[in-house]
Amino acid sequence: MADECPSPTSWSAPGGGAYVVRPGTNAGGHSPSSSPDIEPPYFCSDAESPDSSDVEHSYFSIGVEPSHASFWDSDIGTPTASEFEAQLLAAGAPTTPGYDFEDRVLAHLRTGTLRYLPTFWKMMVHIFHLSPYDLFTWGLRIELDEQDEIMSELSEILTHPLWEESGIHILRYVLQAAVCCRIRDHAPPLMPLSPAMVDILEARPPNLAGLNARRREEKLARSIFKAWGRTMPGISGTVRRLIMELERFPTFHVSVVDDYIFFVLRAVDIRNVRFCLNQMYGAGLFGFSVREYYSQYVEEYAAHWQNIPPFDADMLRHWEAIAISNRRINNLCRYPDARIDEAGIRSEIYYWAMPDQEQRFRVMMFNLTPLAIRTVFQ
Hints:
The chain has helices at residues 81-90, 101-113, 117-128, 132-135, 147-157, 161-166, 168-182, 195-203, 213-231, 233-246, 267-282, 290-301, 313-332, 340-343, 350-353, 359-365, and strands spanning 10-12, 18-21, 38-39, 140-142, 263-265. It is mainly alpha-helical. Strands 1-2-3 form a 3-stranded antiparallel β-sheet, with helices on one face. Strand 1 (10-12) and strand 2 (18-21) form a beta hairpin. The model is unreliable at 1-75 (pLDDT under 50).
């Protein structure tokens, strides 16, 4: 397998594996403050086998089963493949019969053309114990023409410790906020509500009387964010500071109406988040920059990369097909665009349970696309 994915500029990691170092960087003995420009190990998709002259991206092939069939390493904290697949299957509607031919075709096309899809899947499974499709919920979509670039950019910020403390719903919320800060008059960000948050909101519901539609959306969103902040006082100020940094970027009008409703993520939005996180690092709020946290992650886990599922292209295609089928069936069942465990709080979601719930929220949450990519709503 190694011959299929040549690594022209690499050095061995302790215990096996490889770090990938781009030309002109120091391959050894670096400190976090002078970390090389490195990428996590990678397995090739069926559609591509990088030429050895491609020095911009190098790959480490791991298209083999791990050495332990029932792998669980407490130091890595990764679920076994069977455990994760069971979790993936449980994320679909109870009536889901399994994926069909169209789901398999879409999965095959994605795994055969998107070079960063394997890395993104592995990092999502490892860091959050979730699939990429769990991130792209609550109206968050991905720009079709920028899928690979977005997954590459996201892979770098996934390792930031802010998400370890706050969870994937705040990563999603910050990405939504980045879209809102780019598009003027966009619907405000959304997040799942914990029982504690619902208690806070029911005790002191926001007064939306007399406000126009936009102001009602904004006030409701602010009230929900404040309720979350009261349940997570340790990090809410940090997240608020990050969003304030994002608000410094200029906003623009767009020509497609759906782009004011759905959070269509573009690579520039992720770069803006990275810039703001680095600004906060410069202000002393974080110990390292985004790239330094990412480099440390690669150093720590490169030797174990082959033991993090999905192990090979076949498993990736299978899991992609399950995730695609889940979204398709959930949409047919008129389920909201949320993980089942997030949508099941008190059998309702606060946003559209309210009498004054806005139409943009309803359109956003009840129109799923199979691949969580940008499409024009009909």
